[in-house]
Design brief:
This protein is α/β, with parallel strands linked by helices and 264 residues long. Helix 4 packs parallel to helix 5. The longest helix has 19 residues. 45% of the residues are buried. The structure holds D-glutamic acid. D-glutamic acid (DGL) binds next to helix 3 and helix 6. D-glutamic acid binds next to helix 3 and helix 6.
Amino acid sequence: MAHQQAKILIFDSGVGGLSVYKEIVAKCPQLDYLYIFDNQAYPYGELEHDVLVSRVEALVTSLVAQYAIDLVVIACNTASTIVLPSLRAKLSIPVVGVVPAIKPASSLANQAVGLIATPATITRPYTHDLIRNFSQRKPVELIGSTRLVDMAEEKLRGQAIDFNELHAILAPLINKVDVAVLGCTHFPLIKAEIQQVLSEKVMLIDSGEAIARRVETLLATKGDENQMGKREILSTAPPWEEGALNIALEELGFTPVRYYPLEI
Ligand code: DGL
């Protein structure tokens, strides 16, 4: 019998979007999931603006057509802060993006907010508009780090986090902020370690749960919640430590990574 569940496409440069996938799948296990990571152009936090936009548009539009996708999640802050308007103009299905949770963080903070994101996200006009509009009274300290993104990739493949290195990266926030935004989808994967370095007193906020609620609302026909949908995963280049990666992916319900080259 033909599969009747709605199908979601989740996009990121790497494994960070899996933190968003986990939140969505917890609410909607019955849906079919197709995850693509553009590891050929990773890290997105250091990618040129126009290259990023054209890669995301090409990959997402071709997958939407090929796999009969019902909803797209751009599970990447670095991409969402620049690609959403043009991508939405090209598609007739909902496109949900992830942007740094400055607004809730600022309303919860008593002292100051930290924004931990990629080097690109902290320079985006979109991010600075969020700060201007939603954090007028609380100062926002920015940290842009690709090394933190790499550390999340490494942890998912079973490697240990170097706490001295993590401490050095997060030093500008230590004892300076009482709320910190995880403004990159990779960072919830190393949330416990970030929490330990910043101390238990700092509240960490990410957008994952809010995105999952949005997806749940948009996909009104949810199907049989007792059935588990399909979980497939694609990459634009052969992933490093593919064996270790596939073990982690299997735990999340995915079949092994398949290669999906980008043809622009
Ligand atoms: N996970 C991505 C984000 O949310 C970007 C990581 C990267 O490739 O630099 O910003």
